[in-house]
């Protein structure tokens, strides 16, 4: 396989260029060397970037692939004119047709949060992250009222990373509520959850996978034993069914897939769309 | 302003379509109604999507804007043929030129993690999230050794959301280590940190902003008082300078900007690139 270097170049963090570029590259069976070039916000830095890109092309014997989300036209022009790589201009490609469609000019604003500290959206996202951290594993039940989403499920079914993702990506206040053996003995939804049924979402998991995950945490414990995992999962699933709680098996799903499914089912009020 | 509906349509979660589409839309001063259509993975669901898109166009009196990252060609064809919206095909636009450039066909794989549970990359990301949660606020010092990055700074300087973001986005094991008044009295870097200087990154913040943030947490406390915040920040900055720790002011920065800057400075060994 020929050697290729891929660059992600942006006047901001480059995270959009990188996320999107990697999604495109995942469509190809190639192993590329990746280089992140964030904060290229002066013509000088653009010249430095050019040197680095063109040098990589000479070393590889193949022109580099360059994903860019540059919005400053002067900087983009330096790259377009002097870069020996294959340029994939992710903003320009779509912004120009949209200018025509909308009949307005784009504002060439760098980054999602131009001044992060003053953005209400940004502050509510930080608040959501702090909320979700404070409400991990059923801490502070009295605040369930304020939650946008409450995840229920047995220990290690995926509640914690999912709630943090919901907070970080969507600014949602997500709480966790673990179902524990005492709940199964009572055979009833924990009373604290009953008033919040519309916000509940259940996470379940294959007992075999759960046992594997718990083994890493507490090897050879009753907690991790396959028999016990089978019992807990089966009791938890029965409880969710009886209470009419929507649920999803996380066994083969990524955090992103779980979070997207939850949003489709729960439609939190606070979410912009 | 004319009414516009924007759709994000994908055979996967649609998170790439949404992240990228919103970055493009941020270039325009418009208020659009946004609709997420994830998991459109059958021709049937494509027809449902078409009905929804075309209906929105009739209601608005303006054709909708449709960002798609569909990789299944049969489903994409239904949308292309029958959708009355303006279609922005984010994958097709770049995948076809790349097929020519690389001389190979794309694999039309949906999503970043085709089977999340089996992906080593995915598992190490979950492990990193759990690690960063367990090592928030200086818990378990003995594991600092295993950290990829250790963030230091006064309480509420932005360490926690930044470390979670580094774990979630880059799979890095990020620990936090708060600098507290006792450290300032000693006028020395906490001894636990000394062996790990190459992994340390300092976060600082304007005392006025810090006082505001702390007021929300503990109103009218000494902890939140502007005088105390001034003292802590000044002592923490002096300590970082003396110890030669790279640092950044988080006052007007987003989590993404802070995380990207840290990666540029620290170059963690474990990071793929």
UniProtKB/TrEMBL annotation, chains A, B:
Enzyme class at the top of the EC tree: transferase
Pfam families the UniProt entry points to: Kinase-PPPase
GO MF entries: ADP binding; ATP binding; phosphotransferase activity, phosphate group as acceptor; protein serine/threonine kinase activity
Superkingdom of origin organism: Bacteria
Catalytic activity: [pyruvate, water dikinase] + ADP = [pyruvate, water dikinase]-phosphate + AMP + H(+); [pyruvate, water dikinase]-phosphate + phosphate + H(+) = [pyruvate, water dikinase] + diphosphate
Coiled-coil segments on the chain, per record: none
Keyword Kinase: yes
Binding site for ADP: 153-160
EC identifiers of the protein: 2.7.11.33, 2.7.4.28
Signal peptide as annotated in the record: none
Annotated keywords: Kinase, Nucleotide-binding, Pyruvate, Serine/threonine-protein kinase, Transferase
Function text: Bifunctional serine/threonine kinase and phosphorylase involved in the regulation of the phosphoenolpyruvate synthase (PEPS) by catalyzing its phosphorylation/dephosphorylation.
Family: Belongs to the pyruvate, phosphate/water dikinase regulatory protein family. PSRP subfamily.
Protein name: Putative phosphoenolpyruvate synthase regulatory protein
